[in-house]
Amino acid sequence: MILGPPRRRGAERVERMDAGQGSPEEIAEAYRLLDRVNRRLGGHRLTEEILVPLARSGSGPLAIVDVAGGSGEFAGRMARWVRAAGRDPRATVIDLSPAALAAARAGNGTGVAAVRADALALPLPDRAVDVAHCSCFFHHLSTAGARDLLSEMCRVSRLAVIVNDLVRSRVAAATIWGLTRALTGNRLVRADGPLSVLKSFVPGELLAIAQAVGASDHPGFRWQVRRGFPYRMALVGVRVDRRRPA
Fold it and tell me: How far apart are CA 115 and CA 113, in angstroms?
């Protein structure tokens, strides 16, 4: 008998970092470990495989907003990939956490801008950036909240939207439980890591959210879900109508 994914834990199951728990040192370590997990378990690679061809398909500066981008590590990497592809990056992190933004301003060294704002009300005009990116944040939201955030990312993007996140599965949850205990004694990471997996979507659910956004607010995108090894996925929306708004 093959078991399907476990029931999704809803937005009511609040992760410790979302609840404001942890000292500045614990939070900084948690962000470092998240970057390490992204690097080793395919999170960075999945976005790179999508972003670099987009960068190579055009010329001039490429503007990226990393929504709920935390300490700016991912945004800094995207800026380096775009630069290596021959484009001038213009990367901005938007996050609501003062601690995360302080780390982004102090430590990335890549010229990434950092702005404090709510992800559901991005302080950007329509089609203000080329690519709107978000990593490991959608699983913090309810289905309705994820739909609202995706709609907002579509609004500000003139080229593409990339949502990089975990895939909910029993094996992934057990693996992350083991890894967090092997890698760190950080109580935030040990509690939030496995819960993040159990709060995540599966590809069909994420695609259904995109289709709902397309049917209501933003029909001008073509959507697909790309899987990454081992338990990552990226929802990719490419704008078909790239005319600037009047």
Answer: 7
Residue matched to tokens 């083991």: 178
Contact between 223 and 206 under an 8 Å Cβ cutoff? The reply is no
Residue-wise pLDDT tens digits, 86-125: 999 999 999 998 877 877 777 655 678 999 999 999 999 9
Q: Residue 128, SS3?
A: coil
Residue 188 identity (one-letter amino acid): L
Tokens representing 201 are: 């979507």
In angstroms, the CA 233 to CA 43 distance is: 8
CATH of the domain at 124: 3.40.50.150
d(CA 37, CA 32): 9
How many independent structural domains does the chain possess?
A: 1
Residue 162 lies in a domain: yes
- 210 three-state secondary structure: helix
- Average of pLDDT values for 231-240? 95
At residue 27, the pLDDT reads 76
30: tokens are 């948690």
The answer to which of 35-39, 65-69, 212-216 has the lowest mean pLDDT is 35-39
